[in-house]
Amino acid sequence: MNVLSSLFGEIVKRRRRWYDRHATARRRLACPVISVGSLSVGGSGKTPVVAHLAKLLAGGGERPAILSRGYGRKDSADGVVVVRDEEGVQAPLARAGDEPLMLARNLDGVRVVVAPDRYLAGRLAEMRLGCSVHLLDDGFQHLQLDRDIDLLVMHSDEFEDPQVLPFGTLREPLETAARADALLVSGDMSGTGKSIIDTLQLSRIYQMQRVLDVPRSTDSGKSPVPLSVSSRILAIAGIAKPDRFFSEIGTFGGIVVRTLAFSDHHEFTQQDIVKITELVRALRIDLVLTTEKDYVRLERYQPFAFNVAIVPLKIEIEEEGEFLSWITSQLAATREKRKQTDGAP
User: Fold this and answer.
1) What's this model's pTM, rounded to 2 decimal places?
2) SS3 at position 75
3) What is the DSSP string of 86-129?
4) In the structure, what pLDDT confidence band is assigned to residue 1 with cuts at 50, 70 and 90?
5) Domain 18-211+316-341 adopts which CATH fold?
6) Strands, E, within the chain: which ranges?
7) How far is it, in rounded angstroms, from Cα 206 to Cα 69?
8) Strand pairing of 205-212 and 232-237?
9) What are the extents of the domains in the chain?
10) pLDDT digits over 156-181, tens only?
């Protein structure tokens, strides 16, 4: 391992040990907290897992609130921003951030709250929005906030060369995964990944699959957009690991003539739109395909001089019934324990 990566790994391990020794430094919210996080810097599938879990919890009668940092916001207010409440979406992209806004638009009955201090976000969600459970988005390293369930999301690619930053993609050493209550893993686990997971001795492991939905229109109805075998496609993505998106959209049919990759959370400019328009004309493109996350950053340039459709990303959890049953039982146990100790909900 590179010297700098070794040094970084030691620093983050010491940080965790400090919180282990100073448990009171972690602030605790009144309602249960489910953390959904990862070891890698991006592309593991945290956000789709948060969305899926929020739907499962809301379907079971819970009132979930998603607590997000709101990475990449242009208007980074110090206070708490309510992106969605029971009435609907309440904040624009500049104040919400792309992922929170995307979640807010897709999740009826789910509160979405953004703040640098996730504890303050959670307190507001409890006191003003009537939430019953929190989903801490990208929370595995957010040790300042106590959690009752720690979910770790990983892709099999992360096991191939598990180096920490700055020369790898991991924010913490791989062995830190053993601290999770459950691992949700996607990708091919038949090789190296399976043997590594076995050594971690995690008590709960759930296999999941990333599934691209069919291309859909950008209007409120999000109706399916048909593709023919001759449809000429320009694919655009400003996300972590865009190559995965580009390879998977080939299953829809049509011809992917060109791909355009931007950095994660890229702020699209008028020059970008001009470039896309020129490519559409030069390459005789029938349809531009992009992700939901990218579209919330593109839409301010409407109307476009080209046809565009979004490709939603979903996840499917194998043995989902058992997974939800475990989550439900953990929440019940947490509430019972709190009732006995401090009367919290």
Assistant:
1) 0.94
2) coil
3) TTEE---HHHH-HHHHHHHHH-TT-EEEE-SSHHHHHHHHHHTS
4) low
5) Rossmann fold (3.40.50)
6) 33-37, 64-68, 81-85, 88-89, 111-114, 133-137, 149-155, 182-186, 205-212, 232-237, 255-261, 287-291, 308-311, 313-317
7) 26
8) unpaired
9) 18-211+316-341, 214-311
10) 888 887 889 998 899 999 999 999 99
